[in-house]
Amino acid sequence: MSERSTAEPSDGAAAGGDGIVELQGLHKSFGELEVLCGVEMTIKRGQVVCVLGPSGSGKSTLLRCINLLEPPTHGQILLEGKEITGRHARREEGGIDFVRRRVGMVFQQFNLFPHKTALQNVCIAQEKVLGRKGAEAREKAEALLDRVGMAEKRDEYPDRLSGGQQQRVAIARALAMDPGVMLFDEVTSALDPELVKEVLDVMRELADEGMTMIVVTHEIGFARDVADRVVFMDGGVIVEDGPPAEVLERPKQERTKKFLGLVLEGH
Length: 267
Prior knowledge:
Blueprint: E1 19-30, E2 33-44, E3 48-52, H1 59-66, E4 74-79, E5 82-83, H2 95-102, E6 103-106, H3 118-130, H4 134-147, H5 163-175, E7 181-185, H6 193-208, E8 212-216, H7 220-226, E9 229-234, E10 237-242, H8 244-249, H9 254-266
Parallel strand pairs: 3-8, 3-9, 6-7, 7-8
Antiparallel strand pairs: 1-2, 1-4, 4-5, 9-10
Helix pairs in contact: 3-4, 3-5, 4-5, 5-6
């Protein structure tokens, strides 16, 4: 187990002033279906939090709410101490533009622009959102592609890249915005097994460098080795939250034990 996994978990009440993301009574409904049911959680700056749970448990919706891709039905989200939900979201110090600058997200599907090269894909958001000039954006993009091991593929189009390579470009694109927190939504689930490691290795390096990360994943080994906290969700609520050794090896709740048993059996 890595040194990172020895960190104490932080709950919504214990984070103090160093919480970078705070969820307060977060609800999300789609019609009559309530997907998130009053989630309370605080992520401290520099923490790696892995979120586990069965399909339909609310994991991806949780990330999409944090990134304001889905507006919460009720509750509050604070990002770096600023409320980004409700009427405060329209204020200059908060809102969607602030979120897009401070939160990077990488999806299960790579979502690269097919008509743009890897380099262009990493440049475009910098230019459009941050207003970086072409030369500055290109220099940043080249450095990040090198960082994720894709420098030699910078002029290739997505259809000439493997899934793992496309996902690494997507990570570079998110990092180009200099985010304070990175969200990863099952980023290896669409990859062939032999390509999973190259993406997880990039994520491990980000964790080692101190990036705040919230990772929805079924990769139990990654959660055990890299996470500071493991959160298990089911039915739109947090069932269990603690250090990896505690949640993965000595879960307290029967729902957690059953889920882990099924996942580990599949491996």
